[in-house]
Design a protein that fits this description.
Blueprint (H helix, E strand, L loop, with lengths): L1 H46 L6 E5 L17 E3 L11 E9 L2 E10 L5 E3 L3 E4 L11 E4 L4 E7 L7 E11 L4 E11 L4 E5 L7 H4 L8 E4 L10 E9 L2 E10 L5 E4 L2 E4 L10 E5 L4 E7 L7 E11 L4 E11 L1 E6 L7 H7 L8 E2 L14 E9 L2 E10 L5 E4 L1 E5 L10 E5 L4 E5 L9 E11 L4 E11 L6 E3 L4 E4 L11 E3 L7 E5 L9 E10 L5 E11 L5 H15 L6 H15 L1 E2 L8 H10 L2 E2 L1 H12 L5 E6 L8 E6 L4 E5 L10 E4 L1 H4 L26
Parallel strand pairs: 1-4, 6-10, 11-14, 16-20, 21-24, 26-30, 32-36, 37-38
Antiparallel strand pairs: 2-3, 3-4, 5-7, 8-9, 9-10, 12-13, 13-14, 15-17, 18-19, 19-20, 22-23, 23-24, 25-27, 28-29, 29-30, 31-33, 34-35, 35-36, 39-40, 40-41, 41-42
């Protein structure tokens, strides 16, 4: 019994001990975990002190700035390649370095941004459609995305639409972008320079329609005045409005001349110009004026500014003179005897200074000219001011005009006579939309502001007049050379400012010597056309391109200087050929380059040689050149028509013509009295020769 009792007691003690032991294990485990956690915390705090263990990055944007991983002070950087484009969502282990220690950190990449795009205005025509993605630019999204119209424009109908485009990516991010879609039937806004060429109907169109027409407003536009106007264009049963904005962005162009002032007097800015090429009022001021207490020729600096704020600085000469006389412009040279008559009595007995400039100069050159006299042993400077006080004259004509199209006022007059360039304008513009004959008045104004009025007639009718083809003549070329079919040939039309000019060269074999037909055809916007067929003859070269190039360079290096204007260069070409080629009565009139080379290197040849050398040299300057051959003469004669920007003039360097005349930039009226046939040519093949004397700029 005792044993049993003791056994029970022992068993009870063991169970009690086991219970106490089982209760201690959680405590121990917890203690261990706490110790481990504390150790880990200490370790993390120690190792990752000042560095975040993880950070978020946006899909597609690469590594974020290092600052997202940094806490507190100190410098940090990524270790390795930082230019990473992360294109998939996920978790990435990367290495950062802070204060000299490197740590592994976690970058959690996810897509949280909706797609983005730029949404500037979109312009299309009524004939076009576009998808929503075409209406946006610079779409930004790292994952796949969709683009859909949410609010669609009415394609095919002109107007301005605030369309909406929905953008969504595969991660559920989305946005709606508003874009302005402008659908045009005609140009919504057309900017035109004041005083420039008037826009044609095609300039208002953004689609091609044969039934288009002006429906109002065009006649009310004041093309010379800055402002905005509405013009209506109709086609396909609809009317569209274009805002025409007339702007003045061009600086004034001064028509500068040499001024004159008496010694001790102050010059006026207005004396240095005859006027300005500008559509608005221009004010000029002297910005640099020489002292005028002694005679001489000085350079002055001026500024001109128009009413729109466009300005230009320019220079002009000033003659400070002892005496000033005035003389009327004329198409001739002055002389000593003429000038003496204009001087006062105190100049009696004076003589021209033999060491100074010649008193002979052209009276077409407006402005002041210096003439030096000797009086009582002293030099006296006289300023001779050439003035044009005579109004231009001209004959009014019946001018054919096309219904609905503007016709330049200068086309209503012919035989203009004046000592300077002349411009024309309507006193009142004709009604271009009313068929029939209308009387018009043309106001002519020359460089000096003299005006006259000429009556003419506008014959308005549907356009049935074909373009005129100019300078389509028989020509010679070299076998194997590239042919410039449009080097001189051009077309003009009574209404279309840019008629289409085409050439049929299908019969030409430029690799084989021979003569071939070439046909030019010009067509205007109404379908009127004209054609001219000429002969192109191909021959073998007698001089190489390099030989001719070297010969030209040898001459231009001698006669041109860097500061020369095109007009001065043209005069240098004229003088060189006139003075340095001797007439010799033969030439190969099919060999332009060969004869030019002969004239430039040998200095001999006939009129064709003079022409060839002149033509080749003129290719080196900024001008237009046309080749001319005498019509119906007993012998052939060749020369050039030249346009230096102020119209076409005769340019003939041959020095054995009538009276050995120096035919530099001359009018028909200059050369016609010298010979009834020497400079006769087919005027239908060429643009009209200028009727006002050429003046060196």
């Amino acid at each position: 019994m005792l044993k049993i009792t003791l056994g029970v007691i022992a068993l009870s003690r063991n169970k009690s001990a086991e219970k106490k032991k089982s209760r201690r294990w959680p405590v121990v485990l917890l203690t261990v975990l706490l110790v481990l956690a504390a150790t880990a915390a200490v370790t993390v705090f120690g190792v990752y002190r000042g560095v975040n263990l993880w950070a978020h990055g946006e899909l597609g944007e690469g590594l974020p700035d290092i600052s997202v991983f940094v806490r507190g002070e100190g410098s940090a950087s990524y270790v390795g390649d930082n230019d990473i484009s992360l294109t998939e969502e996920g978790k990435y282990i990367i290495t950062v370095e802070k204060d000299g220690a490197r740590r592994k950190v976690l970058l959690i990449v996810s897509d949280t941004k909706a797609p983005a795009a730029d949404n500037g205005d979109v312009k299309i025509t009524i004939d076009d459609t576009i998808g929503p993605e075409e209406a946006l630019t610079n779409i930004k999204e790292a994952s796949d995305y969709t683009v859909e119209w949410k609010v669609t424009p009415e394609f095919g109908k002109a107007g301005t639409y605030n369309a909406e485009i929905a953008l969504a990516d595969i991660h559920g991010n989305s946005d709606v972008i508003t874009v302005k879609v402008i659908i045009l039937g005609a140009v919504d806004r057309l900017k035109v320079e004041a005083g420039g060429d008037r826009p044609a109907l095609k300039d208002f169109m953004v689609v091609e329609r044969e039934n288009a027409e002006f429906a109002g407003g065009y006649e009310e536009v004041k093309w010379d005045e800055v402002g905005e106007y509405e013009v209506q264009i109709a086609f396909d049963g609809q009317t569209y409005t274009t805002v025409v904005e007339i702007v003045d962005t061009t600086a004034p162009v001064p028509d500068a001349v040499t001024a004159a002032v008496l010694k001790g007097k102050e010059p006026e800015a207005s004396a240095f110009t005859l006027g300005f090429e500008d559509v608005s009022e221009v004010t000029s001021t002297l910005t640099e004026v020489p002292v005028t207490d002694k005679c001489g020729i000085f350079t002055c600096t001026l500024n001109a500014e128009d009413a729109c704020g466009n300005s230009v600085d320019f220079e002009a000469k000033l003659i400070v003179a002892d005496y000033i006389i005035e003389i009327e412009a004329a198409n001739r040279n002055t002389n000593e005897a003429e000038l003496r008559k204009l001087l006062p009595t105190e100049f009696a007995g004076c003589i021209l200074d033999p060491e100074a400039a010649d008193a002979e100069f052209s009276l077409t050159e407006l402005g002041a000219h210096p003439v030096y006299f000797i009086r009582s042993g002293q030099q006296v400077l006289v300023a001779v001011v050439v003035k044009d006080t005579t109004a231009p004259t001209a004959e009014g004509i019946e001018c054919p005009c096309s219904t609905g199209y503007y016709c330049e006022p200068i086309k209503f007059v012919t035989n203009i006579t004046d000592m300077s360039a002349v411009k024309a304008k309507f006193a009142q513009e004709p009604d271009w939309n009313t068929e029939g004959t209308q009387e018009v008045e043309i106001i002519l104004t020359d460089r000096c502001g003299n005006t006259s009025t000429v009556k003419a007639k506008a014959v308005v009718a549907p356009d049935s007049i074909a373009p005129v083809i100019y300078a389509a003549i028989d020509r010679n070329f070299y076998v194997g050379d590239a042919v410039s079919y449009f080097k001189e040939v051009f077309a003009e039309d009574n209404t279309d400012p840019e008629p289409e000019l085409t050439v049929d060269k299908s019969k030409v074999d430029s690799k084989k010597a021979g003569t071939y037909d070439v046909t030019y055809t010009a067509t205007d916007h109404e379908g009127n056309s004209s054609s001219v067929t000429v002969k192109f003859t191909f021959i073998e070269r007698t001089v190489t391109e390099e030989q001719l190039k070297q010969a030209v360079k040898a001459v231009t290096d001698k006669i041109f200087t860097p500061d020369m204007t095109p007009a001065e260069q043209a005069l240098a070409v004229f003088n060189y050929c006139y003075d340095n080629i001797t007439y010799w009565g033969d030439s190969n009139k099919q060999d332009l380059c060969g004869e030019a080379y002969r004239g430039l290197t040998k200095g001999v040849g006939d009129c064709y040689t003079f022409y060839a050398a002149t033509y080749i040299l003129l290719q080196e300057i900024d001008c237009q050149v046309l080749s001319v051959e005498r019509m119906n003469g007993k012998t052939q004669h060749f020369w050039c028509l030249v346009n230096l920007g102020t119209g076409w003039y005769h340019f003939d360097t041959c020095n054995v013509g009538p009276q050995h005349y120096k035919c530099f930039m001359k009018m028909n009226s200059d050369v016609a009295p010298l010979s009834p046939q020497y400079w006769v040519f087919d005027k239908s093949l060429y643009p009209e020769v200028a009727t006002t004397p050429f003046v060196m700029p």
